Amino acid sequence: GQLKEAVRVARSRHTLHQQLNALFEKTFAAAKEIRNESAVGENSVSMAAAAVKMAAQIFPDISALNVLMVGAGEMIELVATYFAAECPRRLTVLNRTLERAQELCQKLSCEADARILTALPEILAEYDVIVSSTASPFPVIGKGLVERALRQRRGMPMFLLDLAVPRDIEAEAGELNDAYLYSVDDMVHIVQHGQAARQQAAAEAEKMVAGKVAEFIAWQQTRNSVPLICELRDQGEQQRSKAVTKALRRLRKGTPVEEGLQRLSRELTNSLLHAPTRALNKDSQQYPELAEVICQIYQLHGKNQQH
To answer: GO molecular-function annotation terms (predicted)?
Structure first.
């Protein structure tokens, strides 16, 4: 996003060189193609990213969810940041001290409200996603509390993620219907699998990048030949114009049309072939590769070359 915005600003101010602009365009296109055609972004390699992806497997739309963070430490801050990026309908942070919860809410990219931890029993049923990571030596969310919340939700599932050690959520809560409970151990397994898959996908993506780099270099080399191509065509056009002028002059003097066309074609052929013929006669001994180049240019088989 930042790079694209920088390119947009540079274009608007006419400070972006043509080849650099082409490089950015091809880079953006390559990045999009790699995202679409490789699995490089499909596997989560952090607990925070995995938490959002797992919630999305249970609920189709994160933006329609109420998300509750229990605690306000580093792990909760990471997970809350990822969920805030998805703009949930409601995001709440519960903590033993309200001030710390408010500080975390102010850091997030979406609107969030802070509550004191003692409010947990009365508000738990309002939330679809609950992520807990406190320093409590005992569970702060028991099976009975989850069971009561599920009854109030009337069949609406709950995604519960316990990132605390020791556990914040009683393991027995995972036995309840519509309660999807995951622990740190579950997340570690998911992240490890994601890292292995990401490494394989990254290797495939690197091959795609190498191919795109080769394509750009080839395109750049082609662009470098453009001035020479233009000069060559200009020279050919001058020779053609000169030959046509001479032919028209002869026709005005009464030269038959057929004879005039024959002389025009011979003169034009001699003119266009003068430079390569002269180079072969003069420089082919010193530069033996010259004959091969001319054969390639004019699509000749070189049958009469002497070896």
So the answer is: glutamyl-tRNA reductase activity; NADP binding
